[in-house]
Amino acid sequence: MPELIFYFCEVQNAFKVYMVIFKSHQIVQAFNMMDSDIFIGESEEHKRITIKAKLLFIKAFKVYFWLCNAGFACNSIVPFISFLIFRTKLYLPVCNYYFLSDETRDHYFWYILTYQTYCVYNHMMYNISIDTFMSGLILMGLAQFRALNDSLKNIKCVSKNKITDEAEERRLRTELILFSN
């Protein structure tokens, strides 16, 4: 079962690598758009929404980072410490290389264990980076939609005596059309 899960994770990661390598131009464009003055916003509410989304992303990234590292420690470091202290049997963390003979696997056990542990950690760090990258893009997109929704709610211009100001309405419509292009 662990080998099957590992296989499906690798297929998923192949698609992630494809996205990062072959879609990097679109990713850079998305970052450039998010760094523009339009996305930063002029109103205090827009800035508050953007900052709140960034702080949520940072908090979620830290939680995810530490949970993944704790999981790695439980899966790789704790069994090694248990082996050193209590002389329990060590198992390979990813797959048992059943295609090798038992003698070969036992002879190269420490090399295989070191290799797998190192690769699992690097693989985990790669997954943390790419998963939080994609969720961060989605979160920032949602924040921009919230800010846009807030801006659109307040687009109607009414004078002090509750009469619609036609000139201001035309100016706002023109600004909205220019903003959408």
From TrEMBL:
It is a multi-pass membrane protein. The chain crosses the membrane at residues 63-86. It comes from the Eukaryota. InterPro entries: 7tm6_olfct_rcpt. It is found in: Cell membrane. Signal peptide: none annotated. Keywords: Cell membrane, Membrane, Olfaction, Receptor, Sensory transduction, Transducer, Transmembrane, Transmembrane helix. Pfam families: 7tm_6. This is Odorant receptor. It comes from Plutella xylostella.
